[in-house]
Amino acid sequence: MLGMSQTHLHCTSPEHHVHDAADFIAAVERACTQRGLRLTPIRAHVLRLIAEETGQPIKAYDLLEKVRLSDGPGAVAPPTVYRALDFLMMNGFVHKLESINAFVACHHPDSAQHSVPFLICNRCHKAVEMEDAEIVTALESRARALGFMPQRQVLEVHGLCERCAN
User: Fold this and answer.
1) Rounded Cα gap, residues 54 and 52, in angstroms
2) Is 39 a member of any domain?
3) What is the rounded distance in angstroms from the CA atom of residue 41 to the CA atom of residue 164?
4) Could you give the CA distance from residue 115 to residue 92 in angstroms, rounded to a whole number?
5) Tens digit of each residue's pLDDT (9 = 90 or more) over 54-85
6) CA 138 to each of CA 2, 61, 68: distance values in angstroms, whole numbers, following the listed order
7) pLDDT in tens, 98-116
């Protein structure tokens, strides 16, 4: 199965995202230790800024601005932040929402990089990570049946969340 190293429960809650940045950072630190990865100070800082958004995607430009404000002008060059983002995405700690070019914390950082569908509210911009292995498997199976060799899946559904629809 494409990028899914563990089976996850289906997402049934619209509030299914990172709630506590400190707990999330601790979980990522444990995962890094277990996997022999190095969570450098800049990687941890970028991760913390993303986690503090609690389900609200943050665009790269806004993330760079937050780093600049917290570290001072010129303290961290943009390529350094992008390298930190690459590390965090590659190891399954954050997801990039391609359709809006923004980042959101993965609410189960103990698993490796994986494909998950996202529900993105057009009004409040919350992003809900759906842990639905059946959808991921169905897309991969259908692609293979057509002779296509999938390497990565991006499935983002835009609409209104329950709160904004009411």
Assistant:
1) 5
2) yes
3) 37
4) 9
5) 778 999 889 999 998 887 666 778 899 999 99
6) 11, 35, 42
7) 999 999 998 777 766 567 8
104 belongs to a structural domain: yes
Q: Does residue 2 form part of some domain?
A: no
DSSP 90-138: HTTSEEEEGGGTEEEE-S-TTS-S---EEEEETTT--EEE---HHHHHH
Q: Where is 34: in which H helix or E strand? A: helix 21-35
pLDDT of residue 77: 84
For residue 54, give the amino acid letter: T
d(CA 118, CA 156): 5
- Number of domain units in the chain: 1
CA dihedral 49, 84, 105, 137 (to 10 degrees): 170
- In terms of phi and psi (left: phi > 0; alpha: psi -120 to 50; beta: otherwise), the region of 55 is left
Task: Extract the tokens encoding 50.
Answer: 């993303």
Query: Residue 59: which H helix or E strand, with range?
Result: strand 58-59
> For residue 18, with 0-12 CB atoms within 10 Å meaning exposed, 13-18 middle and 19 or more buried, which class applies?
buried
Specify which residues 59 forms β-bridges with.
102
Task: Give the pLDDT confidence score for residue 1 in this predicted structure.
Answer: 39
Q: Per the domain annotation, does 15 fall within a domain? A: no
